[in-house]
Structure formats: structure tokens, C-alpha cells
Amino acid sequence: MPFPFEFSGFARKATRVAGLCLSLLSVPAAHAAPLDETIRESFAAGELPGLHAALVDLGDTRLAEVYFSGKDEIWGVPVGEKEFGPDTLHDLRSVTKSVVGLLYGIALEEGKVPDPESPLYAAFPEYPDLASDPERKPILIAHALSMQMGLEWNEDLPYSDPRNSEIAMENAADRYRFALDRPVVEAPGGRWIYSGGAVALVARLIEKGTGMALDDYAREKLFAPLSITRYEWVKGADGVPSAASGLRLTLPDLARIGHMVAGLGLYEGQRVVPEAWLARSMRPRAEVATDFRYGYLWYLTGPADSPVAVAVGNGGQRLTVQPKAGLVVASFAGRYNDPESWRTSLRILLDFAVPEARRRLSK
Length: 363
Hints:
Elements: H1 8-12, H2 14-22, H3 35-44, E1 51-58, E2 61-67, E3 69-74, E4 77-83, E5 90-91, H4 95-109, H5 128-131, H6 141-145, H7 165-171, H8 175-180, H9 196-210, H10 214-223, E6 232-233, E7 247-249, H11 251-262, E8 266-267, E9 270-271, H12 275-281, E10 286-289, E11 292-294, E12 299-301, E13 308-313, E14 317-322, E15 327-333, H13 342-361
Antiparallel strand pairs: 1-2, 1-15, 3-4, 5-7, 6-7, 8-9, 10-11, 11-12, 12-13, 13-14, 14-15
Helix pairs in contact: 4-9, 4-10
């Protein structure tokens, strides 16, 4: 399950990250040793605790791809020590949310889901008592995509606590009613409230509009065009794929998604996600911290006209895409439920990927 602090440490460092991540010319050049070697040396020195794998691409050039061994979990269930490699499936945790955002854009282009500016509750007429509530009528689908619904939701509690909103939703007889029925605490479109429930609702709209389960739609419309053939999507007790945290991919396949985003929706010349949807998704909607914002299920940093897209997940999972430079950095780690887990994945980006990219681009 995802933890809200999966992004909190990064948010606290947002200003520093914006300066280092976005301006490739603002960091010291990396030394000339192959990047694989320098990452392995750092791991051996204990400087990258919990790292399972890392991949760094600059355009079509793979700068690094390294794998290690370590303890792992599948959606919170320990599976012991594992040796990781390019074919190993790994939890994405909340990186899953950003994938769901891409799927909504594909379905929107097909005319199978409502425009984000449409009322959210009108798309759920099966709950007439909620759809007719005047306090809820102003809530748009866009507010779910940007986590600005104005509904009560608390994932700050431990995930062993049944009062945690994510756990309560998983335990509810009807996850969608649970997410829609939270008390209104403020007007929509204001404060950003981290919510796995919002993503569950977005995913449900995809399923209702396409007539397909979320994982089946993803396989047909996103994974197949990217030549992703191996994946798992963990499901809840009700058999519904977890839209907030359940996707499992290999590291190279996660990087494929990153390259498609860097290519503004194109992958190997094929249109996968509409460019207009990516532009909408990368438009800042909510302030998470200083210089750290949220679009449609993606974290954003840097200038609004040239943002870096970031997806993060509990334990140190991370995908960073800098389209302007063609930089794609993906990493897996096993520091689940550790509030400092962000440090490992951020070090891969700032201490290794960005300096090496700068060195290459300065030649």
C-alpha cells in the first residue's frame, strides 16, 4: 500500500530539486567512470540503502542499468530476499496513479469517458443520494485527477490502522460509495489532499466507459503499444485492480512509459497517449510545496512551460521524466514504509543521473 510520506521528503526539498533536476548545466560534471560502476560502488559503500534497481536513459542512450538483491514485498506482503534483474516484476506502488492518469487520457480521446470539466457525481448516477447533494455538485472529475475534491481523506495514519482512509476503502463493501461519501470539508479546487480514493474513482470511470477491467484496458491500449508483455495488477478483496498502488512492472518497461511521456505521447513513431492530454496532465493544478506542484496524477517541478514529471511510490519507487533533455530515470527500492525512503531514489537522480547527463550534453 502507498504511504503519504512517499513524497513528503521530496516535497521538503522541492526548491533544491527544482534547481538541480531541471537545469542540467547547474550541477558539477560527473567523473568519467561508467555510471553503472559508480552506482555499484556507492551501493557497496552503503550509500544507497534498499536500492533494488536503477536505470538512466538520455535520449536513445542508456547511461546506466544496474540490479541488486534485497528484501521485497508484493503489495505489503513480504516475499523475502530476491535477486533483481531486467525481467523481475516489482511493485510500483503509487507510481500506478500516474499510469491511471495516462489511461484516462487514452479513453478520453476515444470518447469513452467524460471530459475532466464534467461533474464527477453526475458520472455516478447509481448513487442518487450523493449525486443530488448540493455540496457535491461542484466537484468535477478534474478535481479527482488533481486530488482537489475537498473531501475528507486521511492516509497519514499507519496502514495497519483501519481508520486509514485507504484501508477503510479496501475494507468497505463498496469502495466507490466509500470514496464518494466522504464528508465535504472545503470547496473543491483548493487544497491538495492526497487520496487513493480519488484515483479509484478515476479508474472506475475508465471501466464504466470502456466496458473493460482497468488491467485489461491497460494491456490493450498502453502496454501492447509499448511492447510491455509482462505485468501484474494486484487486486483487492473485491477483485478490483488497485488503481492507487497495485501495478507491477519490470524496470525497463517502466522506463518505456517514461520514454513515451518524454516523446509527448509517441513511442517509436506510434501515438500512444494524446499529446494534448499530456499537456493537460502536466499543467500545474495544485501546490504541494514550494516549487513542487501537482497536475493530473503527476507531480511536477520546474517551470510551468517545461515541467519535469515525477511519479513516486512507497519504498523508493520513482520515475522522473525531463522531456526537454530526453532524460528518463527509473528506480526501484525496498524501503517500504520508511519515511526516509525518498532519499535513495533522489540520490540516483541528483547524484548520478543528472551529473552524467550534464557531462554528456556538454561534450
